[in-house]
Design goal:
The chain folds into 3 domains: 118 residues, HUPs (Rossmann fold, 3-Layer(aba) Sandwich), CATH 3.40.50; 112 residues, Serine Threonine Protein Phosphatase 5, Tetratricopeptide repeat (Alpha Horseshoe); 169 residues, DNA Cyclobutane Dipyrimidine Photolyase, subunit A, domain 3 (Orthogonal Bundle), CATH 1.10.579.10. By secondary structure, the protein is mainly alpha-helical. The model has no long low-confidence stretch (mean pLDDT 95). The strands form 3 sheets. The chain has a two-stranded parallel ribbon with strand order 1-6. The protein has 19 helices and 6 strands. The N and C termini lie far apart (50 Å).
């Protein structure tokens, strides 16, 4: 059983199939240099903690290897005398190609690569328009996705885990000591978080999910990213209440973006709508300086800076704020979305390639939004609407904690508002909004 984005034992079709194929199963995880290099320290640290939790559940039988999966998987399988290698199907651009190469390497030794299940309730490519073409707009995809439906959670199998081969151990030095407040990792923590959210918070989710000042979101994105629980597990326990429907739609966004990326793998880094590549974007020293101010949360716009500082402190950011800071980078600073997407993937513990790339493109106006570019988030109005008491800003921007209420969102207009060392706005939003729309008109 080659674990990847499925670091759990329950509701796991691939584990069940491995147990059905043999009396003894070897568990394997490969530290792939290509994937490790693309992940920031918070995500690498969380990965190690999640693997340690999985290894505890496997009673210390997990085999760890470092290197090219084409070589590592074949070596472990051949040395262990395995007749098959079981995986959850990977639909990512790199993962799909890697699995074909691994499959070919295993075949040379008479070993089969068996794909069972995936990280999604409905696998990418399964839902299409009536003419067989993929969806490019969320709403019709969601209707088709719900009509298609999904299987119930898989029952747990009895597995005899063995370790007949050596393990390379964890990377040295370990990426576990990071200055980021990471959540508790592992399947048990994921299931506990889901139970707490379902019992205490989901009823208010529809009305409060856009409020970063409230603890009203599920915080399950990191657990879904690493497969510590499956979305099918969540869907099986949702009802018909409006709040449950809202949460179901959020799960569907994740699957929609995975489907879009599956059909257009180049959109992980390139424009889904290629005409936007020719738009005029800012470059040069001033642009670099503004990018750095955005990264560090020093733009002078409190809701933007609070979000960017939350990202640095926790490796996570509230979804509403992700849209605000993305809009600010692209439409106020006139920088290409890829610069923001790369920074997010470096900092996010829940960094998911499909959701990140297409979330950014949606906000940048070059993605799946049906009426895209004219939406320009006003950071002042967004802050006042979704952080009405200013508590979110004060939590992450200590220079503004002396300001009461909504004054925190426009500190430059409050007496002594910038006395704490907080910067003045680096751009004027009204001016840059007009400039952004002018550039779109020229395009």
């Amino acid at each position: 059983m080659w674990f990847r984005r499925d670091l759990r034992l329950s509701d796991h079709p691939a584990v069940n199939q491995a147990a059905a194929d043999a009396d003894e199963v070897v568990s394997l995880f490969v530290f792939d240099p290509r994937l490790i290099a693309a992940a920031g320290t918070p995500r690498r640290a969380y990965l190690q903690r999640s693997l340690r939790s999985l290894d505890d559940d496997l009673e210390d039988t997990l085999v760890l290897r470092h290197g090219d999966p084409v070589e590592c998987v074949a070596d472990v399988a051949r040395t262990a005398g395995a007749t098959s290698v079981h995986v959850s199907a990977d639909f990512g651009p790199y993962g799909a190609q890697r699995d074909v190469a691994v499959e070919q390497a295993l075949a040379e030794h008479g070993i089969a690569l068996v794909r069972t299940g995936s990280p999604y309730a409905v696998a990418p490519g399964r839902v299409t328009k009536p003419d067989g073409s993929p969806y490019r707009v969320y709403s019709p995809y969601y209707r088709s996705w719900t009509t298609h439906g999904w299987r119930p959670p898989a029952e747990d199998a009895q597995v005899t885990w063995v370790r007949p081969v050596d393990s390379d151990g964890y990377p040295q030095p370990p990426d576990v000591d990071v200055d980021v407040a990471l959540p508790v990792a592992g399947e048990s923590a994921a299931l506990q978080r889901w139970a707490e959210f379902r019992s205490n918070q989901i009823d208010g989710y529809r009305d409060e999910r856009n409020r970063p000042d409230l603890d009203s979101t599920s915080r399950l994105s990191v657990h879904l990213k690493f497969g510590e629980l499956h979305p099918r597990t969540l869907l099986a326990e949702l009802g018909d209440a409006p709040a449950h429907e809202t949460f179901r739609k959020e799960l569907a966004w994740r699957e929609f973006y995975a489907d879009v990326l599956h059909h257009q793998p180049e959109s992980a880094r390139d424009y889904l709508r290629p005409e936007f590549a020719s738009m005029r974007y800012d470059r040069g020293p001033v642009a670099e300086e503004r990018l750095r101010a955005w990264q560090l949360g020093r733009t002078g716009y409190p809701i933007v800076d609070a979000g960017m500082r939350q990202l640095l402190a926790e490796g996570w950011m509230h979804n509403r704020v992700r849209m605000i800071v993305a809009s600010f980078l692209v439409k106020d600073l006139h920088l290409e979305w890829q610069q923001g997407a790369r920074w997010f993937m470096r900092c996010l513990v829940d960094g998911d390639l499909a959701s990140n790339a297409h979330g950014w493109q949606w906000t940048a106006g070059c993605g799946t939004d049906a009426a895209p570019y004219f939406r320009v988030f006003n950071p002042l109005r967004q802050g006042e609407k979704f952080d009405p008491s200013g508590d979110y800003v004060r939590r992450y921007v200590p220079e503004l904690r002396h300001l009461p209420g909504t004054q925190v969102h426009q500190p430059w207009s409050a007496p002594g508002g910038l006395d704490g060392g907080y910067p003045a706005p680096i751009v004027d939003h009204a001016t840059e909004r007009a400039e952004s729309l002018a550039r779109y008109a020229a395009l």
